[in-house]
Design goal:
The protein is mainly β. It has no helices and 19 strands. Strands 2, 4, 5, 6, 7, 10, 15, 16, 17 and 19 form a ten-stranded mixed beta sheet that branches. Strands 1, 3, 8, 9, 11, 12, 13, 14 and 18 form a nine-stranded mixed beta sheet that branches. It starts with 14 loop residues before the first strand and ends in a 40-residue tail after the last strand.
Length: 328
């Protein structure tokens, strides 16, 4: 998707046909291992190693600085994006939605901040929490409108010294704001970068990603990377799929959440694009298998939990219609 300064993500040239899901049951929070274990009659053992639930506001209402950094500026980020990324509470803040769901809200505004027409936020866990392998999951409600580009993704922690795409990039969820029922995933690596990632789309015939919460996840290990929406796996890429052995997904990655405005992925806003637009983040969670847990990779103060069987709380599977949003 969008890199810290190295290249352009163009249109998707290697699109696998769209998967349309219709009539699926509403999915609650996913417990790794619910899919029946590892195929050998054994239960998958996952440990929740990090999360931000966004339930308790910080003193200034902004993302917790123990967990998150900001990317700043209006460079276009290699994609001809139009927004100015800021660290203002106006662009990223804690909010409570209509049925008392605590969330982080990333706001894309048309406010001419510092002379730039659009502002938004991009936050990341670089240098704070970086993980090699695991299940990365976020429960999100997306913005809507031409020119909006929300994303949940991972970037190789060595990007500053190992120039993209050699550092690797895992796009767990991207959305073109004018397609409210379709999202995509992508992998960027040598041989598959810029406008030619390994990518697949997922869609619903009768549900939207901007009017309700949905769960976006990736499960990543030594041999494969699998993407899912609401518990439905729709793409699996294996080490053997990488060209000439250029698999670059064996080192720690960090988490990024953002809403871009404009750019090469989905085009620019039109007269019909309404601002402000919001991406709501109910939680972000990371699980790992015990053999993959590296305490040195978790630089913050969060302690490891036990198995996650009892982790899911009763509120987090509640959908929220757009009409019930409360702006605070």
């Amino acid at each position: 998707m969008k890199h810290y300064s190295y290249t352009i993500l163009c249109g998707l040239l290697a699109v696998v046909p769209l998967l349309l899901a219709s009539g699926c049951e509403e999915q609650g929070p996913y417990t790794p291992g619910d899919n029946g274990g590892n195929g050998n009659g054994e239960e998958n053992e996952w440990v929740l190693v990090w999360s931000d639930e966004f339930d308790v506001p910080t003193a200034d209402g902004r993302p917790d600085p123990l967990n998150w950094n900001y990317d700043l500026g209006n460079s276009g980020f290699g994609n001809q994006e139009l927004q100015n990324y800021t660290d203002r509470v106006e662009n990223a803040s804690y909010v409570t939605l209509g049925d008392s769901i605590g969330c982080l809200r990333i706001a894309a505004l048309r406010d001419w901040y510092d002379g730039i027409e659009y502002s938004s936020a991009r936050i990341n866990t670089a240098g704070k929490y970086e993980f090699r392998y695991g299940r990365f999951e976020a429960r999100l409600m997306l913005p809507y409108g031409p020119g909006l580009w929300p994303a949940f993704w991972l970037l190789g922690g060595d990007y500053e010294t190992n120039t993209w795409p050699a550092c690797g990039e895992i796009d767990i969820m991207e959305n073109k704001g004018y397609q409210p029922n379709i999202v995509s995933c992508a992998l960027h690596m040598p041989g598959y970068s810029g406008g030619n990632p390994i990518t697949t789309t997922f869609g619903y015939e009768d549900r939207r990603f901007d009017t309700d919460f949905h769960i976006f996840a990736v499960e990543w290990d030594e041999e494969k990377i699998e993407f899912s929406v609401d518990g439905v796996t729709y793409q699996s890429v294996t080490r053997e799929d990488a060209p000439d052995g250029q698999w670059v997904f064996d080192h720690p990655f960090f988490i990024i959440l953002n809403v871009a405005v404009g750019g090469n992925f989905g085009g620019n806003p039109t007269d019909g694009t309404y601002f402000p637009q919001y991406m709501y983040i109910d939680y972000v969670r990371v699980w790992q298998k015990p053999e993959h847990i590296d305490p040195e990779a978790n630089r913050g103060e969060t302690e490891f939990s036990g198995p996650i069987d009892d982790w899911n709380d009763s509120d987090s599977d509640k959908g929220l219609n757009i009409l019930d949003r409360v702006k605070k």
